[in-house]
Amino acid sequence: MLLLYIVSTIPIATITHGAHKIDESMRSELDRHYQERMSKSEVREDIDRLAVAAGAFSDDDSYDIRVYVGNYSSSYTFRGSLTFTTYDAQGQVVHEKSYDNVIIAPGEKNKLDNYYTSNTFVTYRYTFTAR
Fold this sequence. Notes:
Elements: H1 2-40, E1 50-59, E2 62-71, E3 78-87, E4 93-104, E5 109-117, E6 123-130
Antiparallel strand pairs: 1-2, 2-5, 3-4, 3-6
């Protein structure tokens, strides 16, 4: 019984630890991306305090694309939509997705989505549209 417990616990712990590291990494990337954007421009509107970070994680013969969103405002709650587009090295669209009814509270940083695709991306762009 003890052996069965150990054999089943090790893979579960490994998977959970890996998922936690990816989540940590994506939240750090979200912070870095926001700071980089803010150093290049002035904040003119509340919507300028929103950011997106995306990462592609290899999973056998496909990629797990993770999309995280963050609201760096202390008082503005975003309600609206997000259009997210990924591009390959030649600038061609790899994948485009729209998210409706997105709500991001002040200070919130969360995973918005993850999806699987056969192609990875080099860069991405996004547009928030408030209701």
